[in-house]
Write a structure and sequence with these properties.
Two copies of one chain form a homodimer. The radius of gyration of chain A is 18 Å and the shape is globular. Chain A is 33% helix and 23% strand. In chain A, helix 2 packs across helix 4 (54-66). In chain A, strands 4-3-6 form a three-stranded mixed beta sheet. A two-stranded antiparallel sheet of chain A has the order 1-2. In chain A, strand 3 and strand 4 (100-105) form a beta hairpin. The first copy, chain A, contains five helices and six strands. Chain A folds into two domains: 7-83, Winged helix-like DNA-binding domain superfamily/Winged helix DNA-binding domain (Arc Repressor Mutant, subunit A); 88-145, 2-Layer Sandwich (Dna Ligase, domain 1), CATH 3.30.1490. The first copy, chain A, is of the alpha+beta class. At the A-B interface, strand 3, strand 4, strand 5 and strand 6 of A face strand 3, strand 4, strand 5 and strand 6 of B. The structure holds a DNA duplex.
DNA sequence: GTTTTTGCAAAACCTTTGCAGATGT
DNA sequence: ACATCTGCAAAGGTTTTGCAAAAAC
């Protein structure tokens, strides 16, 4: 785990101005470690007393994403989500409480036994670049229920 | 590979009427083995001379999905896509030509070495249900370029 | 003949854009 | 002071809804 760099400094290094809305968005994503969509993000900030207009929110998310301070991705349900964890990682999603945990999978891609789903033949002639893996299951709190 | 069941029969078993648009959608997805979004699907059917209004297309995709004849999923770019391959499988996407291949991964979930991306600790206390894996790389045709 | 589906038009929804005033550097 | 950002209003694109005519069973 890396030491956290102050948000101000992050913004300065990236050439992005430190405005109230922007700082709040970034801080929330870093501190909560969550992966909200715009609606969830807006709700979370509203609870903290910060109402950000839709246009401003979208503009900031675009800015922070293109500046490389956030990652934008889509979960398998199609929701566009934002993530302050820039290191390559995967997600594990609780099917009960929908908690999302960031995970690292140590197995190398080359250890995967990949077959063509139609023919059953091994898939040999592709070159692999990366994988996005979404695991679903029950988190410790929900596993017992 | 299972033998293909006639579309008419599939519809009858699922209690879904066999209309022209619906049959064309289903046949196209089965025959092409592709995973189009609505726009691509509409374009493909238009090329075959079948122009389906947006409302009808959406209604049919919803009907076929809820009847269990199609699977709806979102690729990591956020596009909602439809798939007539009902067997559990994953996708491998060419980063050059965007071809999508259906793949099966033989390794059991339990063989994955999963660590918490924040703490580095092994993730032990979750129960796993399934995984959605999207591999990216280059297909045989594009690997050489 | 009854129920479902089509396909038009309208509505709802999410995201982007234009721009004047406010804010950050 | 200058460039950027905010936030309102308006536009754009996609998906859903209402409903009368058409088609399927």
């Amino acid at each position: 785990m890396t030491d956290s760099i102050p948000t101000e400094e992050l913004f300065q290094n990236a050439g992005v101005r430190a405005t109230q809305a922007r700082t709040a968005i970034m801080d929330y994503l870093v501190e909560s470690g969550t992966h909200p969509n715009t609606e969830e993000l807006n709700a979370a900030l509203a609870e903290k007393g910060l109402k950000i207009p839709a246009a401003t929110l979208y503009q900031n998310l675009e800015k922070l994403t293109s500046a490389g301070l956030l990652i934008r991705f889509a979960s398998s349900d199609g929701q566009v989500r934002y993530d302050a964890n820039l290191a390559h990682h995967h997600h594990m999603i609780c099917t009960v409480c929908h908690r999302v945990a960031d995970i690292r999978i140590a197995n190398p891609l080359s250890s995967l036994a990949i077959f063509d789903a139609r023919t059953g033949d091994p898939v040999l002639r592709w070159t692999f670049e990366n994988a996005e893996i979404e695991l679903k299951g029950r988190c410790p709190d929900c596993a017992g229920t």
